[in-house]
Write a structure and sequence with these properties.
Blueprint: E1 3-6, H1 13-23, E2 31-34, H2 45-54, E3 59-61, H3 65-74, H4 87-90, H5 95-103, E4 109-111, E5 116-118, H6 129-144, H7 148-154, H8 169-182, E6 185-187, E7 192-193, E8 207-209, E9 223-225, E10 234-236, E11 239-241, E12 251-256, E13 262-267
Parallel strand pairs: 1-2, 2-3, 5-9, 9-11
Antiparallel strand pairs: 1-12, 4-5, 6-7, 6-8, 10-11, 12-13
Helix pairs in contact: 6-8
Length: 270
């Protein structure tokens, strides 16, 4: 059995099929992890959602910011942007089933046997891996439960921008969501910075990539994430970034997790 994590697909169905071919993926033997953002901006979000859903327990997909935005659009709490390519999903005959499936994806996945965790974006330095897992379960219970609609209406926003143990209600859930789905940079105290989206070195003074903050309490953990196309594929102290900009015409990348690190990429043609 092989276990591969795959970076942000964003509706690039043809590239995903090509990568699965390159991996010689066997659904009877192998497993795939997806770092989030299955949908949007690419041409075939509907086909990607159907493919990953139909893999069943042979695949794990965490929620990314574009996946959450699709849910908010479908719930009537976010307007469609010119760059969005959600219409095919929303108009599909199986839209309700696909959206229900998406709502029930995790925001954090941890495999203790592989000693590896996955989420879409980042962790603030105050969180241990165990704390992150617990906070993910809090958010997931709301996304899957009766509080879903109210939270979709309150999900968007940049505040609060720093963790406090006494955060409550939608403020607490919004911060958790922003870490798992939007985070790139923060300062040494864990204050999130959302305006900078370029590679490390282009951010404003006092901010660092979340995985480089001194004293980060999740340091030493093996982590896979996506979200940051400008960062690209990178391995640093056990932390692996996998968004290689497929939707921007670059590559779609996988990494093998059950053994020595091995990266496999295919060119992305829409």
């Amino acid at each position: 059995m092989a276990v591969y994590a795959i970076g942000d697909v964003q509706g690039c169905h043809r590239a995903l099929l090509a990568l699965m071919d390159a991996l010689e993926f066997d659904p009877n033997r192998d497993r795939l992890w997806f770092t989030g953002d299955l949908v949007n901006r690419g041409p075939d979000s509907l086909a990607v959602l159907r493919l990953v859903r139909d893999l069943g327990d042979r695949a794990v997909a965490v929620l990314g910011n574009h996946d959450l935005s699709l849910l908010a659009v479908a719930a009537g709490h976010r307007a469609v942007k010119d760059t969005d390519t959600y219409d095919e999903v929303l108009d599909a005959p199986d839209a309700d089933a696909l959206l229900a499936w998406l709502r029930h994806r995790p925001v954090f996945h941890r495999d203790r046997e592989l000693d590896c965790s996955m989420f879409h974006a980042g962790l603030p330095p105050q969180w241990t891996l165990e704390q992150a897992e617990g906070l993910a379960r809090e958010l997931e219970s709301v996304l899957r439960g009766p509080g879903f609609d109210a939270f979709m209406a309150a999900m968007f926003g940049d505040r609060p921008d720093r963790w406090r143990d006494d955060l409550a209600g939608h403020d607490r859930l919004r911060f958790i969501t922003n870490c798992f789905s939007r985070m790139r940079f923060c300062d040494s105290g864990g204050r999130l910075g959302f305006k900078d989206k370029g590679p490390p070195g282009t951010q404003k003074s006092g901010y660092l990539p979340w995985f480089q903050v001194p004293g980060r309490r999740s340091a030493g953990a093996r982590i896979v994430f996506g979200h940051w196309a400008a960062l690209g594929v990178r391995e640093e102290a056990g932390v692996i970034s996998l968004d290689s900009g497929c939707v921007w015409g670059q590559q779609l990348t996988a990494v093998r997790l059950d053994g020595p690190t091995q990266f496999i990429s295919v060119s992305c043609t829409h």
